[in-house]
Amino acid sequence: MFDAIKLGRRAFLAGAVTSGAVALSSRYAFAAAEKSADAVGIWGPPVGPSIALAHLTESSAIQDAAPGSVFRVWRTPDQMRAGVASGDMEITIVPTYTGANLFNRGLPVKMANVMTWGLLYMMSTDKAVTSLSDIGGKTIVMPFRNDMPDLVFRHILGANGMSADKDVNILYTATPLEAVQYLLAGRVDTAILPEPLATASILKGLGASIAVNRVLSLQDEWGRATGRAPFIPQAGAVVSDGLLARKPDFVTTFNAQAARSTDWVNNNPASAGRLAQDYLEIAGPVIEKSIPYSNLRVVSAADARADLEFFFETLAQQSPDIIGGKLPADAFYLSL
Questions:
Q1: Which residues contact 123 (CB under 8 A, 6 or more apart)?
Q2: DSSP state of 246
Q3: CATH number among 3.40.190.10, 3.30.70.270, 3.40.50.360, 2.60.130.10, domain 119-226
Q4: pLDDT in tens, 246-287
Q5: Contact yes or no for 47/194 (Cβ under 8 A)
Q6: C-alpha–C-alpha distance, residues 172 and 20, integer Å
Q7: Signal sequence: where (predicted)?
Q8: CATH class as words, domain 23-117+233-321
Q9: Closest C-alpha among 185, 173, 195, 218 to residue 311
Q10: Is the pTM value of this prediction over 0.85?
């Protein structure tokens, strides 16, 4: 019965636990207002770190330092790249390797921090799948060929004596949502999904009497494959050179408040879900239940540099272009 699923992204995520659209709150209307001259343009995609940014922009620390600053969500990579290039996105959450790529291509950005240490999970409707050893011969649905999740998964398979080209069949989709739809429609029984869609797939499955299981964390498997800690420095905040020139002290304030807001999100997931749902246009309970799996922790880019460079080098072994062909220079990593 799921072959006919044609849900848009907003409808799918809202419908994961509720019926009808999520009502827009006054704070969402405020976030759409024109920012003042003192304000900073703070952006992020609809994923875990942006939950913290929703809280951050409402804090007195940020409003005192940059009155009128608001948080907005970017929806596509093209929108993000255009916003960074124009300078409108003075601070934005991006995948860390995207930040490296932008820097290496000459865009005026620096990495401020890492805010999430991995959002990737293997999900399955097959109860027999409980580990990597159970996926031999299976079709695994994966969003985005040759993007980071694909490269990480291939590295993990190789470290476990498996080949992504011989031992499994990877079916690529154009979006993560499409991968969820394949899973719930029964076209495949196993998928690699990011949060919060991994959690959304579980909740949407419950509503259709489909048991979607969280089989394993790719963060844990990455740690086992590399001999390092079980975390992936997946996404963080980049800041524009224009902001660093215009408000040189603001980025330090931002980083400190990002850490406080992230702690608040981790300790108050239900409240965080209610706060962020209108910003991200994702149902609050989905956000709440995804937070424990979002590995939210703020580390300055300078302090995370060793982890970032190992991550970049590992990705570049398979696809040098993903980071723009080389490791970023020293100036990329801000010390805050």
A1: 183, 190, 191, 192, 193, 198, 201, 202, 212, 213, 214, 215
A2: H
A3: 3.40.190.10
A4: 999 999 999 999 999 999 999 999 999 999 999 999 999 999
A5: yes
A6: 30
A7: 1-31
A8: alpha beta
A9: 218
A10: yes
